[in-house]
Specification:
By secondary structure, the protein is α/β, with parallel strands linked by helices. It folds into two domains: about 45 residues, no CATH class; about 325 residues, Metal-dependent hydrolases (TIM Barrel, Alpha-Beta Barrel), CATH 3.20.20.140. Helices cover about 25% and strands about 20% of the residues. The strands form four sheets. Strands 9-10-11-12-13-14 form a six-stranded parallel β-sheet. A four-stranded mixed β-sheet has the order 3-2-1-4. It has a four-stranded antiparallel β-sheet with strand order 5-15-16-17, covered by helices on one side. Strand 12, helix 7 and strand 13 form a beta-alpha-beta unit. Helix 4 crosses helix 6 and helix 6 packs parallel to helix 7. It is globular, with a radius of gyration of 21 Å.
């Protein structure tokens, strides 16, 4: 982590800047500090003393209201084109901006076509162009038969390629078997890329024995996740590839991840707000269904400990919406996916604060970690040279989630009716307040501005 304490007091040379946002609680990689954040040309130009802000066309004084970096959500299913009635770039990015998320990375499946080659990536980028309220990057996909497309996708700027080790739920995105995973990892290792994996072993999954949540939960045991994670670790070690496990739900995965980390295997892992804030014991309906499933409260405690330890590097939404008609009451048949993009920050903050964590921790998990994963070095932290993506956040304000008032397309979320702490007051994208009437987001490529 770079120390920018030497930037304090740096003068923008007497020139008039665009914007200064100051707060006594600016959340930086070094902790909370009283600072004036000087912005010019969409970038953070300098961090100055709170009491000595440089000249600017506009000064916003937040006082004791915390200033966070814009969050980075590297796991979002936007579903456009092809299933835009489930979600779309306009609605998903409006929800993101309202929730303090200034960068999302779109998953390669649930859209039609899925992002499996450069041509389909261009279709996706064309669908997104001019519709985004936050910055958007893209993952490619790794499926049987598209091994020759992985390098061109990497060269076209995707953040990495995603695979499933078990059925994805959509026929146009089939899973990789053991040999397919090894081949994909070897290919990715050859060009220094990243493979991210949905890790459940299909041999240990079964059809639910009935319509209840308990039946569904038993059909996707922790052991299925653990065995698949161990397979990714073993093949990453064998090939030297960089790999990442998405949406870890099972505490059983933590020991192999911990051991892999200690052994220097290039494997990281994330979890999601719903695994940290919800529990199997409180599931009331199909809005809670996702794969892997929300597990018991005791399992949830272990995930929090792994975050604090760094075994899990971040928290991302896995926002995977559908139309309400697909959320049928039968858990065996309901679409599996949680809609939470707009409420992830308050959901996590409410639970984190109750466990003794601070905003610095939440920012590390929801901004810095995902930015690093996705290869976006100029995102996710308040430091000079980074994009001026900022969030004024009121950690003490409370609200009740009204799913009908959220910006994502369909009014389905397990958070509906929940009382949460933490309200986003303003979101700035590259120094400009997010305006949901005027899309100002850019389409990103890995590593580049």
């Amino acid at each position: 982590m770079h120390d920018h304490s030497g930037d304090e007091g740096a003068s923008p040379g007497g020139r008039q800047g665009d914007l200064v946002v100051r707060s006594r609680r600016v959340v930086t990689p070094e902790g909370e500090r009283a600072l004036a954040v000087a912005v010019r040309g969409g970038l953070i130009e300098a961090l100055c003393p709170y009491d000595d802000p440089p000249g600017a066309a506009e000064l916003v004084d937040l006082g004791d209201l915390p200033l966070l970096p814009g969050l980075v959500d590297s796991h979002v299913h936007v579903n456009e084109p092809g299933r835009t009635h489930w979600e779309g770039f306009a609605t998903a990015t409006a929800a993101a901006a309202a929730g303090g998320v200034t960068t999302i990375v779109d998953m390669p499946l649930n859209s039609l076509p899925p992002t499996l080659d450069v041509a389909s990536l261009e279709v996706k980028r064309k669908a997104a162009e001019g519709r985004c309220h936050v910055d958007v990057g893209f993952w490619g996909g790794a499926v049987p038969g598209n091994l020759p497309d992985l390098r061109p996708l990497h060269e076209a700027g995707v953040m990495g390629v995603k695979c499933f080790l078990s059925p994805s739920g959509v026929e146009e995105f089939p899973e990789l078997d053991h040999d397919g995973l090894r081949a994909a990892l070897a290919e990715v290792a050859g060009f220094g890329g990243l493979l991210i994996a949905h890790a459940e072993d299909p041999a240990l999954l079964s059809e639910p024995g009935g319509p209840a949540y308990d039946d569904f939960l038993r059909s996707r045991p922790q052991e299925a996740e653990r065995r698949a994670v161990e397979r990714v670790i073993a093949l990453a070690a064998e090939t030297g590839a960089r790999a990442h496990i998405v949406h870890v739900s099972a505490a059983a995965c933590l020991r192999p991840l911990r051991e892999a980390r200690a052994a220097g295997v290039r494997v990281s892992a994330e979890t999601c707000p719903h695994y940290l804030t919800l529990a199997a014991e409180q599931v009331t309906g199909p809005a809670y269904k996702c794969c892997p499933p929300i597990r018991e409260a005791a399992n949830r405690d272990a995930l929090w400990e792994a975050l604090a330890e760094g075994v899990l590097m971040g928290i991302v939404s896995d926002h995977s919406p559908s139309t309400p008609d697909l959320k049928v009451p039968d858990f065996a048949k309901a679409w599996g996916g949680i809609s939470s993009l707009q409420v992830g920050l308050p959901a996590v903050w409410t639970a984190a604060r109750a466990r003794g964590y601070g905003l610095t921790d939440v920012v590390r998990w929801m901004a810095e970690g995902p930015a690093r994963l996705a290869g976006l070095p100029y995102k996710g932290a308040i430091r000079p040279g980074n994009d001026a993506d900022l969030v004024a956040f009121d950690p003490d304000a409370e609200f009740t989630v009204d799913v009908a008032a959220l910006h994502h397309r369909n009014p389905v979320s397990p958070y509906d009716g929940r009382r949460l702490s933490g309200v986003v007051r303003t979101t700035w994208l590259r120094g400009r307040p997010a305006d949901l009437a005027t899309p100002a987001g850019r389409l990103l490529t890995r590593g580049a501005r």
